[in-house]
Amino acid sequence: MRKMLIKGKVWRFGNNIDTDIIIPAKYLNTSDPKELAMHVMEGVDSNFYQKIKTGDIIVAGKNFGCGSSREHAPIAIKASGIQTVIAKSFARIFYRNAFNIGLPIFESSEASEKIKENDEIEIDADKGIIRNLTRKEIYKANPIPKFMQELIKAGGLVEWTRKRLKKKR
Predict the structure, then answer these.
(1) Domain boundaries in the chain?
(2) Would you say 33 and 74 are in contact if contact means Cβ atoms under 8 Å apart?
(3) Which of 52, 58, 142 is nearest to 106 (CA)?
(4) pLDDT 10s digit of each residue in the chain, 169 long?
(5) CB 95 within 8 A of CB 88
(6) Beta bridge partner(s), residue 85
(7) Are the C-beta atoms of 71 and 53 separated by less than 8 Å?
(8) Beta carbons of 145 and 93 less than 8 angstroms apart
């Protein structure tokens, strides 16, 4: 299996970013990822979608993704082109939903505290190493287990399952 490396520019957010901030409830009448992406993080920055570029990274504080159990929040993040989220901690259901839809996320107190907006970082998902290329610092995160990396590379749990079922035919 290939090494999973993620590299991009950082957007910073604080603590307790709930699912209504990530994707406001008024947009939950759709499950279209492209539509959801256009409103990502609108609860805190109404122009966020216009500012980001594919490959960017969100770094936040504690309890990222708290609130409801809906999958719309990680779907909106992934569909917007954000390739990963690093936080001090994640709400449990958001954590699982993120991997289920193929969005890699990392918990790291040190990275959450030290990485600044616009820093460029690189993450080695296999080793749980986060390199801040701007500040020349290294932080530790929990590595993503191989099985979870398979989910991400497949595009999420549904696609992973489809591929496994095709192989059995």
Answers:
(1) 5-168
(2) no
(3) 142
(4) 567 899 999 999 999 999 999 999 999 898 899 999 999 999 999 999 999 999 999 999 999 999 888 899 999 999 999 999 999 999 999 999 999 999 999 999 999 999 999 999 999 998 999 999 999 999 999 888 888 888 888 888 988 998 888 887 7
(5) no
(6) 58, 105
(7) no
(8) no
114 near 137, Cβ under 8 Å? yes
Copy the structure tokens of residue 96. Answer: 């699982």
Alpha helices in 15-156 (DSSP H): 19-22, 33-37, 48-51, 72-79, 92-100, 109-114, 146-154
Would you put residue 78 in left (φ > 0), alpha (ψ -120 to 50) or beta? alpha
Alpha-carbon gap, residue 49 to 22, rounded angstroms: 11
Q: Name every residue whose Cβ is closer than 8 Å to that of residue 76 and which is 6 or more positions away in sequence.
A: 22, 23, 33, 36, 37, 39, 40
pTM to 2 decimals?
Answer: 0.93
Q: pLDDT at position 123, please?
A: 96
Residues 6+ apart with CB under 8 A from 66: 16, 17, 18, 19, 91, 94
Query: Can you give the pLDDT at residue 14?
Result: 97
Homologous superfamily of the 5-168 domain (CATH): Aconitase, domain 4 (3.20.19.10)
